[in-house]
Amino acid sequence: MSDRSFYSDSIHNFLSTPTIQIIGQLASSQAQDLVADQRHAWQQQIRILRDQLSEFLSGQIYFEFAIPRMGRRSDVVLFIEGKVFVIEFKIGATGFSSEDRRQVESYALDLKNFHSGSHAIQIFPILVATGSQPKLMSIASGSFDVFEPVLSNGTNLRLIIESALSIGKTEHWNATDWVSTPYKPTPTIVEAAQALYAQHKVSDIARSDAGAVNLTRTTKRLFEIAGHSETARRKSICFVTGVPGAGKTLVGLAIATNDQMQQPAVFLSGNGPLVDVLREALIRDDLARNPSKPESVPVARSNSSFKTSTIFEIVRSSKRIHRMNGSSSSMRLREHGIFHIHRSS
């Protein structure tokens, strides 16, 4: 069994393993007691996959594959000929809700962005509603080798997989190497803020190699725009986009805390609880880094340079994080005329 899943085996072995043995391994891997609905769901998934994968002589199958950043597990992941198929089953469902489509697409995007072995391979999310009518198969290309979710009732999975295998490139990975590569989401916002205020660079705290490159490039480009705007006495607006957890807020914090800024930079957030948590974490972190300070945490709160006001302002020298009313978050470099809007998708 892979540490990433409750059950994993070659497709060849899966096809000949008794259903009760597979369910037993799945049940022994989960923390809570096995309920009838979950047992039934696994039985139906195994039945459908046995029928649809019987023609495939190679490949690996994973049940309950972990998506750590989201705290969720994908029902099934297949690794066949260097391509990944993320399959989400809705047993008995008669339709395909937008929420279910987003779910399976989010799993695929999470693997693409944060699982090192998935950065350069094609990923095909498949949503199976077993009670739905047969649908005309459609495999539409998406962004960065993550295809649009394919909709199925389970009776045409073999055809979907065969069609996907004929599309584009095939990476020469084996399943063992692929699944064992690191899963590296970006740090939590508290971890990022603490590291940035300690004058670490973005590239030092981004946990994905590809993410570090992208975040560093984005931050560098925003600094360039800020400098040009100041020199030319003009205003600029920049939008930074990315999946949740990609590091958009990290970019804003990096700019607001960087000593390259010639004028005061302000990080504005409509997320009040986030600012409260950041303020407390930064005070505690400052005391931990400077054990010679005789202050307790309550005294540090009152004496700290991370001051609060009616707009819940956190200040470190000329760097500030504000709590403001509103549903969106924004970072404004006031003196440079840069206004960055950050919305989580």
What does this structure look like?
It is a single chain. With 345 residues, the protein is α/β, with parallel strands linked by helices. The chain has 2 domains: 7-180, no CATH class; 189-342, no CATH class. Helix content is 40%, strand content 19%. The two termini are 34 Å apart.
Portion in helices? 40-55%
Q: Give unreliable regions as ranges.
A: 304-345
Q: In angstroms, what separates the terminal alpha carbons? A: 34 Å
| Rg (CA only) | 24 Å
SSE ordering: EHHHEEEHEEHHHHHEHEHHEEEE
Number of strands: 12
Total domain count: 2
Task: Report the portion of residues in β strands.
Answer: 15-25%
Helix count, DSSP H or I runs of 4 or more residues: 12
Topology:
Layout: E1 7-10, H1 11-16, H2 19-29, H3 36-52, E2 60-67, E3 72-80, E4 83-90, H4 98-114, E5 123-129, E6 150-152, H5 157-165, H6 175-180, H7 189-197, H8 202-205, H9 209-232, E7 236-239, H10 248-257, E8 266-269, H11 272-289, H12 297-303, E9 313-316, E10 319-323, E11 329-333, E12 338-342
Helix pairs in contact: 7-10, 7-11, 9-10
Short synopsis of the structure:
The protein has 345 residues and is α/β, with parallel strands linked by helices. 40% of the residues lie in helices and 19% in strands. It folds into two domains: 7-180, no CATH class; 189-342, no CATH class.
